[in-house]
Structure formats: structure tokens, C-alpha cells
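re the bet — no i am not wrong, look at it urself. input seq straight from the record:
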Amino acid sequence: MRNAFRPSAVSCAFDKEYFERLYAADPDPWQFATSLYEQNKYAATLNALVHPRYHSALEIGGSIGVLTAKLAGRCDRLLSVDLSTLAQSQARERCRQWSHVRFELMRVPQEMPQERFDLILVSEVGYYWTEPELIVAGERLVQHLRPQGQLLLVHYTPQIKDCALSGDAVHDHFLSRPGLTRRSGRRSEGYRIDLFERATTPEGRA
């Protein structure tokens, strides 16, 4: 089950067809499975989590499932969503041993699952949004966190060709959002990690 919205005047070159073409040309276009840089970033991502285990987690932009498989060991239930059928078929195979991991094709923030989560991970996704999508994503991600649920953002910080947003712009937007407090933040070479928690204030309530 999911809910959806249709924002007005939103156009984006990074649609489902774009990513399907990308994975058809190269099954691992960013070397998620082989890059030492990616492995170090995944380790830093998991180290940023303050709880040893989360009851229910949502991974937005799971791609071929390399980080999904690592995150699965920290969650009782994990829903991984992506736009690409080709990428997600790899992710399903990579995570076949994890019966508590589910997969859905979904475009966030236009579509969101109906449940709420203790953890939402947005890794290397936000700069593909347009500015209107980022604003809606900020609203909806807060709404889909349980009280004191956590939002973990991980993004490459240099400007990416043809992307309207930078990783820093994405993180700075969430820093200014009501309903969230930042638990921790760090920069490394080429990327940034920020962990937010849903605030126990009227602004943070659904």
C-alpha cells in the first residue's frame, strides 16, 4: 500500500527510463559492489546509526542492494524502494537470504508507503530531485517517521552535472526543516552524512 501526490510544474530528466537505460548499459554504474570508496562510505553510514537495531526501516534508492544487504542486519523489517526494475532485480538476488527485507518500485516523494518507520535512509538520491520535490520530500519524510524516528542522509557533495541540487543543498534543507533535530553530522572526502531525529514538539507530530 502507498499514497501518492502529483506536484505541479515538476520536470526532471532523472526518470525511470533514465535509470533503466543506465543499468542496461552497466549493471553497476557507480561500482557500488567493488569501489573501496563506496565500501568506506557504507561503513561510515552504518557507524552513524546510534541504535544497534531498528524495528522498521525504509531505504530510499536502494539500487542494486549492496547497502541494503548491510543495513538488513540492523533492522527487524526493511523496505527498500527504487525506480529501476533492473537495479532492484539485482538487489532482490543479493538480499535473498533476508526474509525480512521487502522491495517495491516507487518514486519518492511522488509515492510513499503508508506505514511509518523508525529509520529512513536517503543515500545518494536527494540531488536527483527538483527543488519542488525536495520541499515535498522534506514534509513527507518527517510525516513518515515515528516519534523519535531517525532520518539518515548520505550524499556526494560536489555538484553533479545536470542535477539542479547539490548534496549540501539537500542536507541544508533538512537542517532548516521544522520537526527535525540533528543528532550528528560529519564530512569526509567527497561526501556528507547527517543524522536527524524527529523532534518531540508540536511541529514534529503527524
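see?? Strands lie at 2-4, 54-60, 75-82, 101-105, 111-113, 117-123, 145-156, 180-188, 191-198. told u. also The chain is about 30% helix and 30% strand. so pay up
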